[in-house]
């Protein structure tokens, strides 16, 4: 048990582990012994992380992973139904390209713009309910989770009432402690649910993304399950955690909160800065070298695993001076929170729209918003592959 693994212990809930920040001072790429003894690499530098993520010499297919990938990180990767075609996050070109092309048009800035009124309506309805209920309450349950969850359900055509059937299982998949059997069972349940839904839609199509994909006729059932699995799971856990953790960050940085609330022109950049500063994808992404590649003087051998540390890369002083400070007015564009290269987040415009609408609406409707517990009492998601807060007790 003397192996060095990815440092995950945070001293401060909003700062990456100090050991990784220290490594960054030494250089952009490091040999790292993963928990299982496999020797790979840890990337801490911004430009190195971009170079790896943009390089065609690295793969994201599970088959090319080192046979004994680091267990904690392998679990971190396990939003992945191993059987399913269509889960294109874990594919390389040309397969990846084929699926991604089918979907790009649905997630453009223009298409997402059309969803904005509905996102605003959903946000307002959550705030109405919060006001009616009165504080203290859990902001995750009342606001951060339902907004993105409702939006992605409506977009895909998944009945929101069915969410109990996949939210518990997606929590299981994102938990770093989940064992392989438990993860496979959860994947099986979500896939079975989606399979049923796809059959139903085949008979009674409606005006939603999933019905459109079915009617397009290019994908078989297994592929449809894989694609919808990815969109459903990626689409609500991520933004939900940004809204929860972002609100925590603003409440504990009142000057930044005031800037986001009082100046509408700040919100757009403020969202980018929150994405950068919080970097909720906090372990990985990982890639495997397809051949020997030299990056920043390091020779990465074919088959070796490279872990990008996005939270630290996003604080690289060469790219973001004074990056440990949350500053909603700094130029924060170019951060790596949505990844980079061919797998760069498909849903980023949707996530941005949700956050641009939700944060200011929350802060303006409830100007007295504050934590209902001390900051130290807020349970952080250190045990999950997507960082955030488990609960955020607030009042106003
Ligand atoms: C703030 C919220 C979000 C964050 C931080 C985030 C982050 C990421 C990151 C880092 C990747 C790349 C992973 C890699 O390279 O291995 C990714 C990919 C992806 N994301 Fe997001 N995401 C967010 C919201 C969403 C939403 C709302 C959707 C809804 C559709 C979504 C769908 C996807 C998909 C489909 C991919 C795979 C793209 C591909 O492989 O081509 N994401 N996301």
UniProtKB/TrEMBL annotation:
Classification via InterPro entries: Cyt_P450 (IPR001128), Cyt_P450_B (IPR002397), Cyt_P450_CS (IPR017972), Cyt_P450_sf (IPR036396)
**One of the Pfam families matching this protein, by short name:** p450
* Keywords carried by this UniProt record: Heme, Iron, Metal-binding, Monooxygenase, Oxidoreductase
What are the recorded GO MF terms, alphabetically? heme binding; iron ion binding; monooxygenase activity; oxidoreductase activity, acting on paired donors, with incorporation or reduction of molecular oxygen
- Entry's CDD domains? CYP105-like (cd11030)
Q: Which family does it belong to?
A: Belongs to the cytochrome P450 family.
**Matching PANTHER family, A to Z?**
CYTOCHROME P450 YJIB-RELATED, P450, PUTATIVE (EUROFUNG)-RELATED
Q: What is this protein called?
A: Cytochrome P450
Which organism's genome codes for this protein? Nonomuraea maritima
């Amino acid at each position: 048990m003397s192996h060095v693994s990815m440092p995950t212990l945070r001293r401060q809930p909003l700062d990456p582990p100090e050991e990784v920040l220290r490594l960054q001072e030494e250089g952009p790429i490091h040999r790292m012994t993963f928990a299982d003894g496999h020797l790979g690499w840890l990337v801490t530098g911004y430009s190195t992380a971009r170079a790896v993520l943009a390089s065609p010499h690295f793969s994201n297919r599970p088959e090319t992973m080192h046979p004994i990938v680091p267990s904690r990180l392998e679990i971190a990767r396990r939003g992945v139904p191993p059987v399913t075609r269509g889960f294109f996050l874990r594919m390389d070109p040309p397969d990846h390209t084929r699926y991604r092309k089918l979907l790009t048009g649905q997630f453009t800035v223009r298409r997402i713009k059309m969803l904005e009124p509905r996102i605003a309506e959903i946000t307002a309805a959550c705030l109405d309910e919060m006001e009616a209920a009165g504080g203290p309450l859990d902001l995750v349950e009342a606001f951060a989770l339902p907004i993105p969850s409702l939006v992605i359900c409506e977009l895909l055509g998944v009945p929101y009432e069915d969410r109990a059937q996949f939210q518990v299982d997606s929590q299981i998949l994102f938990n770093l402690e989940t064992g392989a059997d438990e993860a496979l069972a959860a994947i099986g349940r979500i896939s079975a649910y989606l399979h049923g839904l796809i059959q139903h839609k085949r008979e009674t199509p409606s005006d939603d993304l999933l019905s459109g994909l079915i009617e397009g006729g290019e994908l078989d059932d297994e592929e449809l399950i894989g694609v919808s699995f990815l969109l459903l799971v990626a689409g609500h856990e991520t933004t939900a955690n940004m809204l929860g953790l972002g609100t925590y960050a603003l409440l504990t940085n009142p000057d930044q909160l005031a800037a986001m609330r009082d100046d509408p022109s700040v919100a757009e950049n403020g969202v980018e800065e929150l994405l950068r500063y919080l970097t909720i994808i906090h372990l990985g992404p990982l890639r495997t070298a397809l051949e020997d590649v030299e990056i920043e003087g390091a020779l990465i051998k074919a088959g070796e695993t490279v872990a990008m540390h996005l939270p630290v890369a996003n604080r690289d002083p060469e790219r973001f001076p004074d990056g440990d400070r949350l500053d909603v007015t700094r130029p924060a564009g170019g951060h790596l929170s949505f990844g980079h290269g061919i797998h760069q987040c498909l849903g980023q415009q949707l996530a941005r729209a949700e956050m641009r609408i939700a944060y200011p609406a929350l802060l303006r409707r409830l100007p007295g918003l504050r934590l209902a517990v001390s900051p130290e009492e807020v349970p952080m998601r250190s045990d999950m592959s997507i960082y955030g807060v488990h609960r955020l007790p607030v009042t106003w």
